[in-house]
UniProtKB/TrEMBL annotation:
Domain ATPase BadF/BadG/BcrA/BcrD type residues, every copy: 85-320
EC category: transferase
Region listing for Disordered, in residue ranges: 30-54
Keyword Transferase on entry: yes
Domain of life of the organism encoding this protein: Eukaryota
Enzyme Commission identifier(s): 2.7.1.59
Pfam families xrefs: BcrAD_BadFG
Similarity remark: Belongs to the eukaryotic-type N-acetylglucosamine kinase family.
Protein name: N-acetyl-D-glucosamine kinase
Organism from which the protein derives: Cephus cinctus (Wheat stem sawfly)
C-alpha cells in the first residue's frame, strides 16, 4: 500500500491525502474511513518503518489487475472532507463524506516546511501503521491543480482562508498568501467577515468612518452572533474565537450584496481586487508556455467565495487590467472533488499505474479575460471607487489599449 499525504504548513488551510491501496477488501476501505474520522488503530510501541523507494510497492502492483487496484484520494478542509476511491483505470468506485481535517495541518514557529512535513509523515506512520507503507507530504493546493490542469497553471483558493499556488511546466512552484488570518487571508471569507466587523468598530468609535453607511452590516452582525453591542461581540473575536464560524458571517455580507447594500458591495469589490493581486503576483513568475497557451493563463478557483463571483468580478477584472501584467487568462471551477487530483498524484508515484486522467472533464470555465477585448465592467450599484490605492493608476477610460 502506498499513500501520499498532502499538507500545507500554514494555519487554516486544508489537508489532502492521496492513498494508493493495493487491496480491494471493504474492510481496508473502512480502515481508511476510520482514519479520516480521527480514530487511529491501536499499535505497538515500535517506531514507524519507512520505505525509501517504491520498489516493494511496484512488485505488489505487478500482480494486480487494474480493476483490483484501489486509489483513495481525500479532499480535506475546514468544515468537511471527501474521500473518493477509484480503481487502477480511474473509474470512481465510491465517495464518502467526513468531518474537517484542518487540525491535521501544523503551524510551527521557527520550523522549515520540510521539518513539518517530516513530523506529519512520522505521525501517520506511527498512528496508522496499516494504512500505508509510505507517505509523501506536500502542498495541499496540488490536489486541486492536478485535478484540472495537466501542464500547470494557478490554483487560487478563496474559502475560509486564502492561498495561491503556481506550477510551471518544468515543475517549479511558487506561492502567494496562505499565511493565515493573523497576517493575511486576503480574498477569503474570513477576510470579508473581518473587514465588515472592522468597519463597524471603527465607524462607531468615530476612529475612521466606513466608506458607506453601516446600516445593514451592524444589525446583521448583531443578529448573526446574537449580541446586543460590541462588548458582547468581543468573546467571538478573542476568547471563543473560531475561524470557521467567524468566516461564515461572510454569507450575510453576500446577502447584503444581493440587496444592493453599498458597503457590502464595496467589501466584495475589494476582495476581488485582492484575489486578482494573488494572480498578478504569480503571473510574474509564470512560464511563457502558460501565458501564451489557448485561453491564456489558466486559474483554478476553489472555495465558497467564488460562488459570489458576480460581486467580486468588477474588482478582480479591473485590478487584472490595471496591472498591465496579464494579457489573457481563463478562470475555471472544478466539476469534481479535488480528491480526484489526490488520486492522480498517488498514481504518478508508481510507474506501474497507468491511470486514465480526464482533466478536461474535471473543470469548467466561467470567465475569460483578454486585454485587447476588455472595455471595462460598468457597475452603477455604488459610486465609483478607484483602484489607484492598489496600483497607482486611474480607473475608467485610461490605459484601455
Amino acid at each position: 500500500m502506498y499513500c501520499k499525504h498532502e499538507h500545507r504548513a500554514k494555519e487554516g488551510l486544508p489537508v489532502q491525502v492521496a492513498t494508493l491501496l493495493v487491496m480491494a477488501e471493504q474492510e481496508k476501505k473502512n480502515q481508511l474511513s476510520e482514519g479520516i474520522e480521527g480514530k487511529p488503530k491501536q499499535t505497538d510501541a515500535s517506531s514507524p518503518q519507512e520505505v525509501s523507494d517504491v520498489g516493494e510497492i511496484d512488485e505488489d502492483l505487478l500482480k494486480k489487475k487494474a480493476e483490483d487496484v484501489r486509489i483513495g484520494g481525500i479532499e480535506g478542509g475546514a468544515t468537511h472532507s471527501t474521500l473518493i476511491v477509484v480503481d487502477g483505470s480511474g473509474n470512481k468506485l465510491s465517495e464518502l463524506k467526513g468531518p474537517g481535517t484542518n487540525h491535521w495541518g501544523l503551524s510551527l514557529s521557527g520550523c522549515e516546511e520540510k521539518e513539518t512535513d517530516r513530523i506529519i509523515k512520522e505521525s501517520l506512520l506511527r498512528d496508522y501503521p496499516n494504512a500505508s507503507k509510505n507517505y509523501i507530504v506536500s502542498s495541499d493546493t496540488l490536489g486541486s491543480m492536478k485535478t484540472g490542469l495537466e501542464n500547470g497553471g494557478i490554483v487560487l483558493i478563496a474559502g475560509t482562508g486564502s492561498n495561491a499556488l503556481l506550477i510551471n511546466p518544468d515543475g517549479k512552484t511558487y506561492g502567494c498568501g496562505g499565511w493565515g488570518h493573523v497576517i493575511g487571508d486576503e480574498g477569503s471569507a474570513y477576510y470579508i467577515a473581518h473587514r465588515a466587523c472592522k468597519y463597524v468598530f471603527d465607524d462607531l468609535d468615530d476612529l475612521k468612518k466606513a466608506p458607506y453607511p453601516i446600516t445593514y452590516v451592524w444589525p446583521a452582525l448583531k443578529n448573526f452572533f446574537h449580541v446586543a453591542d460590541r462588548h458582547a461581540l468581543l468573546s467571538h473575536l478573542y476568547s471563543n474565537f473560531e475561524k470557521v464560524s467567524f468566516a461564515k458571517f461572510a454569507k450575510e455580507i453576500a446577502t447584503g450584496c444581493e440587496n444592493k447594500d453599498p458597503l457590502c458591495l464595496d467589501i466584495f469589490r475589494e476582495n476581488g481586487e485582492y484575489l486578482a493581486m494573488h494572480v498578478i503576483a504569480l503571473a510574474k513568475k509564470a512560464h511563457n508556455d502558460l501565458l501564451l497557451s489557448p485561453g491564456g493563463l489558466k486559474v483554478i478557483c476553489v472555495g465558497s467565495v467564488w460562488k459570489s463571483w458576480n460581486f467580486i468580478k468588477t474588482g478582480f477584472t479591473e485590478a487584472i487590467h490595471a496591472s498591465n501584467i496579464i494579457d489573457e487568462l481563463t478562470l475555471h471551477h472544478l466539476t469534481t472533488s479535488s480528491a480526484i487530483g489526490a488520486c492522480y498524484l498517488a498514481a504518478d508515484h508508481v510507474k506501474e499505474i497507468r491511470l486514465k486522467k480526464n482533466y478536461a472533464n474535471n473543470i469548467d470555465s466561467f470567465y475569460h479575460y483578454k486585454r485587447n477585448n476588455y472595455s471595462g465592467i460598468p457597475d452603477f450599484s455604488i459610486p465609483e471607487k478607484s483602484v489607484a490605492s492598489l496600483w497607482g493608476v486611474c480607473r475608467g477610460p485610461c490605459n484601455k489599449s
